Amino acid sequence: MKKMTIEDKLGLNLFHTDEENSHIEVDLEFKDEAEIRKLLLACPAECYKYEDGKLSFSWLGCLECGTCRVLSHGKIVKDWHHPMGEIGVQYRQG
Ligand code: SF4
Q1: Which domain holds residue 23?
Q2: Among 21, 52, 61, 74, which one is least packed by beta carbons within 10 Å?
């Protein structure tokens, strides 16, 4: 049996998304590029983008790992909580 790659495993995850309400509140006006780059490098789902000096964020593929909350020390991520009820990621292969 072929060993699964990380990408293969992540591709099996199911997402039940709430497209109206983010479970993470991000300060999109934040300007410290060094701090922003930490989140760009750390987020395994690439939810953060930084183009032409503008930060953007999408919670729809969030893996709910909490890394961005810990790294930002309240500077970029202003609020973080798990999605409500049946919403969010459902892991299939760890
Ligand atoms: S919780 Fe994890 S996956 Fe979700 S946005 Fe933050 S770093 Fe990315």
Answers
A1: 14-90
A2: 52
- The tokens describing 71, both together, are 């790294």
**Cα–Cα distance measured from residue 8 to residue 63, given in angstroms and rounded to the nearest whole number:** 15
Q: Which residue has the higher pLDDT, 8 or 71?
A: 71
Question: Region 45-68: what's the mean pLDDT?
Answer: 96
42 closest CA partner among 22, 23, 14, 70: 70
Report the residue among 64, 77, 80, 89 best suited for mutation to probe ligand 1: largest number of ligand atoms under 8 A from its CB: 64
**How many structural domains comprise the chain?**
1
Q: Is the pLDDT of residue 94 over 80?
A: no
